[in-house]
């Protein structure tokens, strides 16, 4: 399986036209499985995001979080989902069984549309056991 195809292929996270950048990491945040060119998710950011989404703690509302060297304000935390905003830009993080999907949308895309793009790929791969 080529994870890169789920990030940049025709029906992928970015291929749907709603996201500007995306990454797939393992659930522990130790390994970057796929990433769009130019999306600079740092190793400590990946580890922190994995810890946040796995812990279920809602302390990100006060502190925000970093992804791709940008700081995002947390606007939603629910089981398996974190959504952050920086101005009108946003990031959607969703956890599946074996991996975590991260999608970054530009200002001209509504966060709900970005979430829908990530959710579609996550649901498909969950159906395959990931």
UniProtKB/TrEMBL annotation:
The organism's place on the tree of life at top rank: Eukaryota
Record's subcellular location: Cytoplasm, Cytoskeleton
Main location group: cytoplasm
GO molecular function: actin monomer binding
Pfam families, A to Z: Profilin (PF00235)
SUPFAM superfamilies per record: Profilin (actin-binding protein)
Any single Gene Ontology cellular-component annotation: cell cortex
Keyword presence, Cytoplasm: yes
Descriptive protein name: Profilin
Organism: Orbilia ellipsospora
Organismal lineage: Eukaryota, Fungi, Dikarya, Ascomycota, Pezizomycotina
Gene giving rise to this polypeptide: PFY1
């Amino acid at each position: 399986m080529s994870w890169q195809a789920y990030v940049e292929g025709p029906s992928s996270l970015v291929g749907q036209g709603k996201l500007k950048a995306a990454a797939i990491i393992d659930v522990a945040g130790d390994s970057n499985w796929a990433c769009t060119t130019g999306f600079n998710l740092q190793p400590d950011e990946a580890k922190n995001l994995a810890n946040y989404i796995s812990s279920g703690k809602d302390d990100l509302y006060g502190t925000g979080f970093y992804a791709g060297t940008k700081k995002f304000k947390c606007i939603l935390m629910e089981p398996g989902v974190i959504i952050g905003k920086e101005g009108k830009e946003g990031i959607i993080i969703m956890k599946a069984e074996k991996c975590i999907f991260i999608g970054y949308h530009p200002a001209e895309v509504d966060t709900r549309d970005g979430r829908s793009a990530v959710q579609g790929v996550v649901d498909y791969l969950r159906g395959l056991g990931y």
